[in-house]
Amino acid sequence: MELGLVTLLRTAWIAVTLPIVIASIASSKLSSFHQLVSKFAKRGKTMQPRSCKFTVPDRFFSQVYIVAVVWTTILLLTTWLYAYKMAPLTSESFHILHLASHLMGGSHIFSFHKSHLTALEHRYRIWRTVLLLLLMEAQVLSRLFETFNVSNYTPSARMHIFGYLTGLFYYIAAPLSLCCTLAPKVFKFTLNLVAEFIVKGKNQMPATEIDWCGSVNPLMKLGWRQWIGSAIFLWGWIHQCHCHASLGSLQAHAEQVDDYVIPTGDWFEIVSSPHYLDEIVIYAGMVVASGGGDLTVWLLFVFVVANLGFAAAETHKSYLSKFENYPRNRFASIPFLY
Ligand SMILES: NC(=O)c1ccc[n+]([C@@H]2O[C@H](COP(=O)([O-])OP(=O)(O)OC[C@H]3O[C@@H](n4cnc5c(N)ncnc54)[C@H](OP(=O)(O)O)[C@@H]3O)[C@@H](O)[C@H]2O)c1
Protein backbone atom coordinates (compact mmCIF):
# COMPACT_ATOMS: atom_id res chain seq x y z
CA MET A 1 0.00 0.00 0.00
CA GLU A 2 2.87 2.34 0.91
CA LEU A 3 4.61 1.85 -2.45
CA GLY A 4 1.27 2.17 -4.27
CA LEU A 5 0.56 5.57 -2.72
CA VAL A 6 4.10 6.82 -3.36
CA THR A 7 3.97 5.70 -7.02
CA LEU A 8 0.52 7.22 -7.47
CA LEU A 9 1.64 10.59 -6.09
CA ARG A 10 4.86 10.65 -8.13
CA THR A 11 2.94 9.80 -11.31
CA ALA A 12 0.37 12.50 -10.55
CA TRP A 13 3.06 15.18 -10.03
CA ILE A 14 4.77 14.25 -13.29
CA ALA A 15 1.41 14.22 -15.11
CA VAL A 16 0.48 17.73 -13.96
CA THR A 17 3.98 19.20 -14.36
CA LEU A 18 4.77 17.96 -17.88
CA PRO A 19 2.05 19.94 -19.73
CA ILE A 20 3.14 23.15 -17.96
CA VAL A 21 6.80 22.56 -18.84
CA ILE A 22 5.94 21.80 -22.47
CA ALA A 23 3.70 24.87 -22.69
CA SER A 24 6.55 27.00 -21.31
CA ILE A 25 8.91 26.07 -24.17
CA ALA A 26 9.23 29.06 -26.48
CA SER A 27 8.42 27.49 -29.84
CA SER A 28 5.91 28.58 -32.48
CA LYS A 29 4.97 24.91 -33.00
CA LEU A 30 3.73 24.77 -29.41
CA SER A 31 1.83 28.07 -29.42
CA SER A 32 -1.66 26.52 -29.61
CA PHE A 33 -0.75 24.17 -26.74
CA HIS A 34 0.56 27.17 -24.78
CA GLN A 35 -2.74 28.98 -25.36
CA LEU A 36 -4.72 25.96 -24.18
CA VAL A 37 -2.71 25.64 -20.94
CA SER A 38 -2.80 29.38 -20.28
CA LYS A 39 -6.59 29.38 -20.80
CA PHE A 40 -6.89 26.84 -17.97
CA ALA A 41 -4.44 28.74 -15.78
CA LYS A 42 -5.91 32.22 -16.22
CA ARG A 43 -7.38 33.99 -13.21
CA GLY A 44 -8.13 37.50 -12.01
CA LYS A 45 -6.01 40.04 -13.81
CA THR A 46 -4.77 37.60 -16.48
CA MET A 47 -8.30 36.59 -17.56
CA GLN A 48 -10.23 38.77 -20.02
CA PRO A 49 -13.85 39.29 -18.85
CA ARG A 50 -16.26 36.85 -20.57
CA SER A 51 -13.40 35.13 -22.43
CA CYS A 52 -14.47 31.72 -21.12
CA LYS A 53 -17.72 30.03 -20.08
CA PHE A 54 -16.44 27.64 -17.43
CA THR A 55 -15.36 30.00 -14.69
CA VAL A 56 -15.98 30.56 -10.98
CA PRO A 57 -15.35 33.73 -8.94
CA ASP A 58 -11.73 34.06 -7.73
CA ARG A 59 -12.91 34.35 -4.14
CA PHE A 60 -14.22 30.73 -4.33
CA PHE A 61 -10.60 29.72 -3.84
CA SER A 62 -11.21 30.19 -0.10
CA GLN A 63 -13.15 26.87 -0.26
CA VAL A 64 -9.97 25.20 -1.49
CA TYR A 65 -8.06 26.59 1.50
CA ILE A 66 -10.76 25.32 3.90
CA VAL A 67 -10.28 21.80 2.47
CA ALA A 68 -6.49 22.32 2.69
CA VAL A 69 -6.63 23.30 6.37
CA VAL A 70 -8.97 20.43 7.37
CA TRP A 71 -6.94 17.81 5.46
CA THR A 72 -3.50 19.05 6.61
CA THR A 73 -4.70 19.29 10.23
CA ILE A 74 -5.96 15.67 10.12
CA LEU A 75 -2.65 14.47 8.67
CA LEU A 76 -0.63 16.52 11.16
CA LEU A 77 -2.53 15.47 14.30
CA THR A 78 -2.69 11.75 13.44
CA THR A 79 0.99 11.66 12.42
CA TRP A 80 2.01 13.56 15.55
CA LEU A 81 0.04 11.16 17.77
CA TYR A 82 1.59 8.20 15.92
CA ALA A 83 5.08 9.64 16.44
CA TYR A 84 4.42 10.29 20.13
CA LYS A 85 3.05 6.79 20.79
CA MET A 86 5.11 4.63 18.45
CA ALA A 87 8.40 6.51 18.07
CA PRO A 88 9.33 8.27 21.31
CA LEU A 89 12.76 9.88 21.09
CA THR A 90 14.82 10.76 24.15
CA SER A 91 17.88 13.02 24.27
CA GLU A 92 20.09 9.91 24.53
CA SER A 93 18.60 8.56 21.29
CA PHE A 94 19.68 11.76 19.53
CA HIS A 95 23.21 11.54 20.97
CA ILE A 96 23.55 7.96 19.69
CA LEU A 97 22.10 8.90 16.31
CA HIS A 98 24.33 11.95 15.85
CA LEU A 99 27.40 10.01 16.99
CA ALA A 100 26.60 7.17 14.58
CA SER A 101 25.97 9.69 11.80
CA HIS A 102 29.34 11.33 12.50
CA LEU A 103 31.22 8.03 12.56
CA MET A 104 29.58 6.76 9.38
CA GLY A 105 30.16 9.90 7.34
CA GLY A 106 27.05 12.06 7.68
CA SER A 107 24.60 11.71 4.83
CA HIS A 108 25.16 7.95 4.50
CA ILE A 109 22.93 7.39 7.48
CA PHE A 110 19.97 9.12 5.78
CA SER A 111 20.05 6.85 2.73
CA PHE A 112 16.46 6.04 1.90
CA HIS A 113 16.95 2.27 1.48
CA LYS A 114 14.55 1.21 4.21
CA SER A 115 16.23 -2.10 4.91
CA HIS A 116 19.35 -0.31 6.16
CA LEU A 117 17.54 1.99 8.52
CA THR A 118 17.96 1.19 12.16
CA ALA A 119 15.03 1.62 14.52
CA LEU A 120 16.44 4.93 15.70
CA GLU A 121 16.82 6.38 12.24
CA HIS A 122 13.27 5.31 11.47
CA ARG A 123 11.98 7.19 14.51
CA TYR A 124 13.99 10.23 13.48
CA ARG A 125 12.32 10.17 10.04
CA ILE A 126 8.88 10.00 11.65
CA TRP A 127 9.55 13.17 13.64
CA ARG A 128 10.98 14.85 10.56
CA THR A 129 7.65 14.15 8.83
CA VAL A 130 5.81 15.80 11.73
CA LEU A 131 7.96 18.90 11.22
CA LEU A 132 7.17 19.02 7.47
CA LEU A 133 3.44 18.78 8.18
CA LEU A 134 3.77 21.56 10.77
CA LEU A 135 5.33 23.82 8.13
CA MET A 136 2.55 22.95 5.67
CA GLU A 137 -0.06 23.67 8.35
CA ALA A 138 1.43 27.15 8.89
CA GLN A 139 1.26 27.78 5.14
CA VAL A 140 -2.37 26.68 4.60
CA LEU A 141 -3.56 28.47 7.76
CA SER A 142 -2.00 31.74 6.66
CA ARG A 143 -3.48 31.37 3.14
CA LEU A 144 -6.94 30.73 4.60
CA PHE A 145 -6.65 33.73 6.92
CA GLU A 146 -5.45 35.92 4.06
CA THR A 147 -8.25 34.98 1.65
CA PHE A 148 -10.80 36.19 4.21
CA ASN A 149 -8.96 39.10 5.79
CA VAL A 150 -6.17 40.39 3.56
CA SER A 151 -6.83 39.69 -0.14
CA ASN A 152 -9.11 42.09 -1.88
CA TYR A 153 -10.73 40.19 -4.74
CA THR A 154 -12.12 42.52 -7.39
CA PRO A 155 -15.86 41.69 -7.79
CA SER A 156 -15.47 40.64 -11.43
CA ALA A 157 -12.31 38.51 -10.92
CA ARG A 158 -12.86 34.95 -12.10
CA MET A 159 -10.84 31.80 -12.67
CA HIS A 160 -11.23 28.78 -14.93
CA ILE A 161 -13.00 25.87 -13.21
CA PHE A 162 -9.97 23.76 -14.13
CA GLY A 163 -7.78 26.05 -12.00
CA TYR A 164 -10.19 25.61 -9.09
CA LEU A 165 -10.09 21.79 -9.44
CA THR A 166 -6.30 21.84 -9.80
CA GLY A 167 -6.17 23.80 -6.53
CA LEU A 168 -8.27 21.09 -4.83
CA PHE A 169 -6.00 18.36 -6.21
CA TYR A 170 -2.93 20.33 -5.15
CA TYR A 171 -3.94 20.81 -1.53
CA ILE A 172 -4.91 17.13 -1.15
CA ALA A 173 -1.74 15.83 -2.82
CA ALA A 174 0.83 18.29 -1.42
CA PRO A 175 0.44 17.55 2.34
CA LEU A 176 0.07 13.84 1.53
CA SER A 177 3.34 13.93 -0.43
CA LEU A 178 5.14 15.18 2.68
CA CYS A 179 4.09 12.10 4.66
CA CYS A 180 3.33 9.46 1.99
CA THR A 181 5.86 6.86 3.16
CA LEU A 182 4.31 6.98 6.62
CA ALA A 183 0.64 7.63 5.78
CA PRO A 184 -0.49 3.97 5.44
CA LYS A 185 0.95 3.12 8.90
CA VAL A 186 -0.60 6.23 10.44
CA PHE A 187 -3.92 5.38 8.78
CA LYS A 188 -3.85 1.84 10.24
CA PHE A 189 -2.85 3.19 13.67
CA THR A 190 -5.72 5.71 13.63
CA LEU A 191 -8.22 3.08 12.44
CA ASN A 192 -7.18 0.80 15.32
CA LEU A 193 -7.62 3.63 17.81
CA VAL A 194 -11.07 4.46 16.47
CA ALA A 195 -12.08 0.76 16.44
CA GLU A 196 -10.87 0.36 20.04
CA PHE A 197 -12.83 3.44 21.05
CA ILE A 198 -16.00 2.10 19.40
CA VAL A 199 -15.66 -1.41 20.89
CA LYS A 200 -14.61 -0.43 24.42
CA GLY A 201 -16.41 2.88 24.74
CA LYS A 202 -14.96 6.04 26.23
CA ASN A 203 -14.87 4.79 29.84
CA GLN A 204 -12.93 1.60 29.06
CA MET A 205 -10.19 3.33 27.08
CA PRO A 206 -6.80 3.48 28.85
CA ALA A 207 -6.29 6.96 30.29
CA THR A 208 -3.74 8.78 28.12
CA GLU A 209 -1.78 11.53 29.71
CA ILE A 210 0.00 13.58 27.10
CA ASP A 211 3.54 14.50 28.09
CA TRP A 212 3.81 17.84 26.26
CA CYS A 213 7.60 17.91 26.54
CA GLY A 214 7.84 14.44 25.02
CA SER A 215 5.64 15.51 22.13
CA VAL A 216 7.54 18.70 21.31
CA ASN A 217 11.15 18.00 22.38
CA PRO A 218 11.95 15.60 19.50
CA LEU A 219 11.08 18.40 17.05
CA MET A 220 13.63 20.68 18.74
CA LYS A 221 16.37 18.09 18.43
CA LEU A 222 16.18 17.32 14.72
CA GLY A 223 19.30 17.93 12.62
CA TRP A 224 20.82 21.05 11.02
CA ARG A 225 19.00 20.45 7.70
CA GLN A 226 15.67 20.77 9.51
CA TRP A 227 16.77 24.00 11.23
CA ILE A 228 18.06 25.54 7.99
CA GLY A 229 15.00 24.36 6.04
CA SER A 230 12.65 25.82 8.67
CA ALA A 231 14.56 29.13 8.61
CA ILE A 232 14.28 29.33 4.78
CA PHE A 233 10.58 28.46 5.04
CA LEU A 234 10.01 31.14 7.69
CA TRP A 235 11.79 33.79 5.64
CA GLY A 236 9.65 33.05 2.54
CA TRP A 237 6.49 32.75 4.63
CA ILE A 238 6.92 36.10 6.42
CA HIS A 239 7.83 37.88 3.20
CA GLN A 240 4.86 36.34 1.37
CA CYS A 241 2.47 37.60 4.09
CA HIS A 242 3.99 41.05 3.55
CA CYS A 243 3.51 40.82 -0.26
CA HIS A 244 -0.11 39.67 0.12
CA ALA A 245 -0.78 42.63 2.42
CA SER A 246 0.67 44.98 -0.25
CA LEU A 247 -1.50 43.37 -2.98
CA GLY A 248 -4.55 43.53 -0.71
CA SER A 249 -4.12 47.28 -0.27
CA LEU A 250 -3.81 47.98 -4.02
CA GLN A 251 -7.55 48.17 -4.61
CA ALA A 252 -7.67 51.27 -2.39
CA HIS A 253 -5.51 53.06 -5.02
CA ALA A 254 -7.67 51.98 -7.97
CA GLU A 255 -9.84 54.57 -9.72
CA GLN A 256 -12.67 52.07 -10.28
CA VAL A 257 -13.66 49.01 -8.25
CA ASP A 258 -12.61 46.54 -10.93
CA ASP A 259 -9.29 48.22 -11.80
CA TYR A 260 -5.87 46.72 -11.32
CA VAL A 261 -2.94 48.88 -10.24
CA ILE A 262 0.83 48.64 -10.78
CA PRO A 263 2.26 47.22 -7.52
CA THR A 264 5.24 49.14 -6.14
CA GLY A 265 7.76 48.94 -3.30
CA ASP A 266 9.95 46.20 -1.86
CA TRP A 267 10.53 43.23 -4.22
CA PHE A 268 7.74 44.49 -6.52
CA GLU A 269 10.36 46.92 -7.87
CA ILE A 270 12.42 43.98 -9.15
CA VAL A 271 9.88 41.30 -10.10
CA SER A 272 6.19 41.37 -11.06
CA SER A 273 5.15 38.53 -8.74
CA PRO A 274 7.35 38.41 -5.61
CA HIS A 275 4.61 36.43 -3.81
CA TYR A 276 5.17 33.59 -6.31
CA LEU A 277 8.91 33.81 -5.70
CA ASP A 278 8.20 33.58 -1.95
CA GLU A 279 6.10 30.47 -2.52
CA ILE A 280 9.09 28.88 -4.29
CA VAL A 281 11.32 29.83 -1.32
CA ILE A 282 8.75 28.31 1.07
CA TYR A 283 8.78 24.96 -0.74
CA ALA A 284 12.58 25.06 -1.14
CA GLY A 285 12.68 25.31 2.67
CA MET A 286 10.52 22.20 2.89
CA VAL A 287 12.82 20.29 0.52
CA VAL A 288 15.82 21.19 2.71
CA ALA A 289 13.92 20.28 5.90
CA SER A 290 12.98 16.91 4.35
CA GLY A 291 16.68 16.08 4.09
CA GLY A 292 16.59 16.27 0.28
CA GLY A 293 16.38 12.50 -0.18
CA ASP A 294 12.68 12.08 -0.94
CA LEU A 295 11.81 12.07 -4.65
CA THR A 296 8.10 12.75 -3.99
CA VAL A 297 8.93 16.00 -2.15
CA TRP A 298 11.25 16.99 -5.02
CA LEU A 299 8.49 16.35 -7.59
CA LEU A 300 6.09 18.49 -5.55
CA PHE A 301 8.71 21.25 -5.56
CA VAL A 302 9.26 20.97 -9.33
CA PHE A 303 5.50 21.32 -9.87
CA VAL A 304 5.39 24.47 -7.70
CA VAL A 305 8.30 26.02 -9.63
CA ALA A 306 6.80 25.13 -13.05
CA ASN A 307 3.28 26.22 -12.13
CA LEU A 308 4.26 29.52 -10.55
CA GLY A 309 6.90 30.22 -13.21
CA PHE A 310 4.15 29.90 -15.81
CA ALA A 311 1.68 32.01 -13.79
CA ALA A 312 4.35 34.68 -13.21
CA ALA A 313 5.11 34.88 -16.94
CA GLU A 314 1.40 35.32 -17.72
CA THR A 315 1.07 38.01 -15.03
CA HIS A 316 4.14 39.84 -16.33
CA LYS A 317 2.78 39.74 -19.89
CA SER A 318 -0.63 41.03 -18.77
CA TYR A 319 0.99 43.93 -16.84
CA LEU A 320 3.08 44.88 -19.88
CA SER A 321 0.04 44.91 -22.16
CA LYS A 322 -2.31 46.60 -19.65
CA PHE A 323 -0.03 49.39 -18.40
CA GLU A 324 1.88 51.50 -20.93
CA ASN A 325 4.07 52.88 -18.15
CA TYR A 326 4.88 49.48 -16.64
CA PRO A 327 8.59 49.46 -15.62
CA ARG A 328 10.43 47.48 -18.33
CA ASN A 329 13.32 46.57 -16.04
CA ARG A 330 11.19 44.25 -13.90
CA PHE A 331 11.50 40.48 -14.24
CA ALA A 332 8.58 38.05 -14.05
CA SER A 333 9.48 36.30 -10.79
CA ILE A 334 13.20 35.48 -10.49
CA PRO A 335 15.43 38.57 -10.17
CA PHE A 336 17.90 39.10 -13.07
CA LEU A 337 16.98 35.74 -14.59
CA TYR A 338 13.34 35.33 -15.51
N1 LIG B 1 1.65 26.31 -4.58
C1 LIG B 1 1.13 26.59 -5.78
O1 LIG B 1 1.30 25.83 -6.75
C2 LIG B 1 0.32 27.84 -5.92
C3 LIG B 1 -0.49 28.03 -7.06
C4 LIG B 1 -1.23 29.22 -7.18
C5 LIG B 1 -1.13 30.18 -6.19
N2 LIG B 1 -0.35 29.97 -5.09
C6 LIG B 1 -0.17 31.02 -4.07
O2 LIG B 1 -1.37 31.65 -3.70
C7 LIG B 1 -1.15 33.05 -3.52
C8 LIG B 1 -2.21 33.83 -4.31
O3 LIG B 1 -2.05 33.50 -5.70
P1 LIG B 1 -2.89 34.21 -6.82
O4 LIG B 1 -2.49 33.57 -8.11
O5 LIG B 1 -4.33 34.29 -6.43
O6 LIG B 1 -2.27 35.70 -6.74
P2 LIG B 1 -2.76 37.01 -7.49
O7 LIG B 1 -3.50 36.68 -8.74
O8 LIG B 1 -1.58 37.91 -7.61
O9 LIG B 1 -3.85 37.65 -6.51
C9 LIG B 1 -3.65 37.87 -5.14
C10 LIG B 1 -4.67 38.93 -4.67
O10 LIG B 1 -4.16 40.23 -5.00
C11 LIG B 1 -5.04 40.92 -5.93
N3 LIG B 1 -4.19 41.55 -6.93
C12 LIG B 1 -3.15 40.96 -7.57
N4 LIG B 1 -2.56 41.84 -8.39
C13 LIG B 1 -3.25 42.99 -8.29
C14 LIG B 1 -3.13 44.29 -8.90
N5 LIG B 1 -2.16 44.54 -9.77
N6 LIG B 1 -4.02 45.27 -8.56
C15 LIG B 1 -5.00 45.01 -7.67
N7 LIG B 1 -5.16 43.81 -7.03
C16 LIG B 1 -4.30 42.81 -7.33
C17 LIG B 1 -5.91 39.82 -6.52
O11 LIG B 1 -7.14 40.34 -6.95
P3 LIG B 1 -8.04 39.56 -8.05
O12 LIG B 1 -8.38 38.21 -7.47
O13 LIG B 1 -9.17 40.45 -8.21
O14 LIG B 1 -7.19 39.36 -9.27
C18 LIG B 1 -6.03 38.86 -5.35
O15 LIG B 1 -6.99 39.29 -4.44
C19 LIG B 1 0.25 33.37 -4.01
O16 LIG B 1 1.11 33.69 -2.97
C20 LIG B 1 0.73 32.10 -4.69
O17 LIG B 1 2.08 31.87 -4.43
C21 LIG B 1 0.37 28.84 -4.97
Automatic annotation (TrEMBL):
**Biological processes, Gene Ontology terms:** dolichol-linked oligosaccharide biosynthetic process; polyprenol catabolic process
- State the pathway, as annotated in the record: Protein modification; protein glycosylation
Q: Where are the transmembrane segments?
A: 12-33, 60-82, 94-112, 124-141, 161-183
Tell me the keywords, alphabetical order.
Answer: Membrane, Transmembrane, Transmembrane helix
The record's PROSITE patterns line, in alphabetical order, gives: S5A_REDUCTASE
Q: Which GO terms describe its molecular function?
A: 3-oxo-5-alpha-steroid 4-dehydrogenase activity
Kindly give the membrane topology term recorded for this protein. Answer: Multi-pass membrane protein
The segment(s) forming the 3-oxo-5-alpha-steroid 4-dehydrogenase C-terminal domain are 224-338
* Alphabetized InterPro entries for the sequence: 3-oxo-5_a-steroid_4-DH_C, Dfg10/SRD5A3
Q: Name one GO cellular component term.
A: endoplasmic reticulum
In which compartments does the protein localize?
Endomembrane system
Q: Domain of life, per the record?
A: Eukaryota
What this protein is called in its record is: Polyprenol reductase 2-like
Annotated organism of origin: Herrania umbratica
